[in-house]
Amino acid sequence: MKQIAANPVYKFLLFPVGQIILFALGASVILSLVTVLLAYLFKSNFIDFDLVERIMLILPQVIINGLTIGFVYSTIALGYTMVYGVLEFINFSHSEIFMVGGIVGIQLMAYFEHTGALATMNEYLVIALAIVLALIVSGSLAVIVERTAYKPLRGAPKLVPLISAIGMSFFLQDLVRLILSLTTGEFNVILPKFGTYDEFWKLAVPGMEDPLRIQIKSALIVGIAILMLVILNFLVNGTKVGKAIRAVAQDRPSASLMGINVNQIISITFLIGGALGGAAGVLFALKATKLDPFSGFFPGLKAFTSAVLGGIGNLTGALLGGLVLGLLESFAASYLGIFTNGAFGAEYKDIFAFAILIVVLIFRPSGLLGQTVGQKA
Amino acid sequence: MGTLLELTNVHSYYGHIHALKGVSLHVNEGEIVTLIGSNGAGKSTTLRTISGMIHPKEGKVELAGENISNLDAHRIVTKGVGHVPEGRGIFPKLTVQENLDMGAYTVNDQKTIKDRMELVYQTFPRLKERVAQYGGTLSGGEQQMLAIGRGLMLNPRILMLDEPSMGLAPVLVDLIFDTIKKLNEQGTTILLVEQNALMALSIANRGYVLQTGSIVLTDDAAKLKKNEMVQKTYLGIE
Ligand SMILES: Nc1ncnc2c1ncn2[C@@H]1O[C@H](COP(=O)(O)OP(=O)(O)OP(=O)(O)O)[C@@H](O)[C@H]1O
Ligand SMILES: [Mg+2]
Q1: DSSP letter string, A156-182
Q2: pTM of the model
Q3: Which of these, A44, A227, A255, A278, could form a disulfide with A260 (CB 3.0-4.6 Å)?
């Protein structure tokens, strides 16, 4: 057993991927069961149609939608949680780092469209390039923000850097708006149309009448998110820098006595978190197809919520929290209307998701998994 | 043998608290020097000032002639100054092995790291039985062994130990003092802070007595042991 656990393929590939699949399946199954159970309980209230059938019909799609947005939340949430783990500080401008990643990605695609290259390029290469650019820009931006707005305030009372972060958040929104208006005269950025990733795969599932329709885009978003989560797991648990990040998170003075450059490690933490956020921005842009300088706010808030739901400071918790929140939101959006006969529609999905958050935190104030970044993910 | 470490008229503060009031001392290459004094005298502060955890407001700290007073702690480590702090500073959620790895953070050669780890496990077999256990779940004594082991991983030119025998059973205290002596025989210079002044003076070459932030007495360890004031105040001999 010990030998298997030490095997790098297991430790850095099979284990994290297995864990992700387990969380995704587990959360999906539990929510589905609860929903179906409720459907059976309230079945008699609905005479015009069979409630259970109606629920089951769209269930696969609801799960896929939930997981897609859930993985985006998880990827953003990791940025909040890593920084919190190391500094015990909530980096509110992370939502803008995410937004900048999305906008930069779209702008790159728009540039390819402008030069005419977009039509001939491999669509996956385009997406890959957009993600790489977003990783670099958002990662660097996060480091710049840390150096200018947070580092000088280290050692100040906790509220002070928090306010600086909120200020930074507004500053970045307006900065992006300014840059966009000066360069394009317009601050909505729209994803150009290219490739075939909007189309659906149709999978025949035995026992189901209609084939299961999976949008290539969803699979792409989930696949890329999983890839990044695996890389992050390796960085944190498998490298010297990762070990140093955990050491700094646990005991900063001791870490410096080991010869660890604490400031550098803190910057690297922002770099990794920011880069992840930027990549998530591109994934989100693929789904939303349109962004503006204020698009970071809601996904950012949801991702922050995911981080808290999972246990802020805990990397595994951020992953789980994002998936749970994404699924909750998708279930609420699709089923609230059906269950309440139209009294509450999809627009109430956020209330529902946040109500669940509050309930979870009342009973488990440290989040679903508790613990901290220092802990092995 | 040359002077490895020298403090000249060092003043250190915590906010407005004036903790070191002009401390001057030196440690020669190859020596064991001990710093004794009552609670709050400034012993730990002296070590913290040397390792760069706090910076002196006045005066200077020199390592082999180089002024290191204003270097950051992590830079001073790379110069070969190891500091095993009071209260151990174990990473509670890193395993024993990972804690030791951290001790060798500035060492790049894998073979060296492996050899030193072997040495640490030889010295403290107890740690070897617990390689995969989290540092925070070790007993107090085991944590102390880990802290010292972690200091050895750096193989520093000068190792500063802040009350290494604190909270340990007498057998372990002997083991720790033997280890310090052996380490010194192999060429590591030692600066030792101890509550157990008698034992410290027994293995040290020289000693300094610190009182409310100032050095009040210094001499060969053997002579300090016989000094009336030292006997009365620090050795509990009336
Ligand atoms: N972090 C701190 N903030 C404020 N004052 C401090 C701090 N650390 C130490 N002091 C003060 O500085 C003085 C010297 O403390 P120091 O820890 O160096 O004493 P010490 O000689 O190591 O004592 P002990 O034997 O109890 O460990 C004390 O008066 C102490 O109260
Ligand atoms: Mg002390």
Answers
A1: S-THHHHHHHHHHHHHHHHHHHHHHHH
A2: 0.91
A3: A255
